[in-house]
Amino acid sequence: MRIERIEASARKRGRVLVFLEDGACLKITEQELLDFGLRSGDELDEETLARLKKAAGVSHVKTTAADLVGKRAMSRRDLEKKLQAKGASETEARYAAEWLEAIGAIDDADYAAMLVRHYGNLGYGAAYVRQKLYEKGIPRELWDEAMDALPDAAEHIGRFLESKLHGRLPDEKEKKRLTDALLRRGFSWGEVRSAWNGLGSDTWED
Predict the structure, then answer these.
(1) Which of 142, 139, 144, 149 is CA-nearest to residue 118?
(2) How far is CA 116 from CA 151, 157, 189, 202, in A?
(3) What confidence tens digit (pLDDT) does each residue in 36-79 have?
(4) What is the greatest pairwise CA distance in the chain?
(5) The domain spanning residue 51 has which CATH number?
(6) Which residues, listed in sequence order, are joined to residue 17 by a DSSP beta bridge?
(7) Of 54, 58, 49, 47, the residue nearest 20 (C-alpha)
């Protein structure tokens, strides 16, 4: 297979376009261009062409992966799933994720801590935050350290109740409604009960 021409991509820095005589266009990196020693007019045997196409596929997946994590943070699991949804093989997706980990572009531990701070600052409790870590594909062995970044529950519960009550004590119906709301936000019954006690409101038994 003959190479018709080689051009630098106008859209992606460091990307090289290799146009073949059959009309195919392979997208590779500048380093791969040097590694293969490619020049316009070269004739590629089947083995070299196969290796070049494989390299082009890997480069494409790596570029897609870098674009994805450049737009928003995500876990390694979610990155691999998104890459496979875009047509990458399981092996290609894993390789791209490993590459991004190696250069520090993705880090599940850092992402987990960021998630904990984010949802904690929004006023959610530990149970809710753990559910988010699960949904985002964070490995369980990283949860405990990440949860250290969770803000104090008592402070958030107190702020929530103050915003609803403005210093007054609720009747039983309102107290039940506010308690249910806090439990849905991931706070434990013990945390909620302590907050009510701190406000001078008796709580019911478990």
Answers:
(1) 149
(2) 9, 17, 20, 31
(3) 888 888 888 888 888 888 888 888 888 889 989 999 999 999 99
(4) 86
(5) 1.10.10.10
(6) 7, 27
(7) 49
Q: 201, exposed or middle or buried, with CB in 10 Å at 0-12, 13-18, 19+?
A: middle
Mean pLDDT across the chain, nearest whole number? 88
The 10 Å CB-count burial string (b at 16+, else e) for 123-155 is: bbbbebbbebbeebbbeeebeeebbebbbebee
Say if 206 falls within a structural domain.
no
Q: Other C-beta atoms within 10 Å of 33: how many? A: 17
What the block records as the tokens of 55 is 């390299």
Gap between the Cα atoms of 139 and 35, Å rounded: 37
* Residue with tokens 């083995």, as numbered in its chain: 47
pLDDT in tens, 121-156: 888 999 999 999 999 999 999 999 999 988 888 888
In whole angstroms, what is the distance from residue 152 CA to residue 166 CA?
21
78 and 11 in one domain?
yes
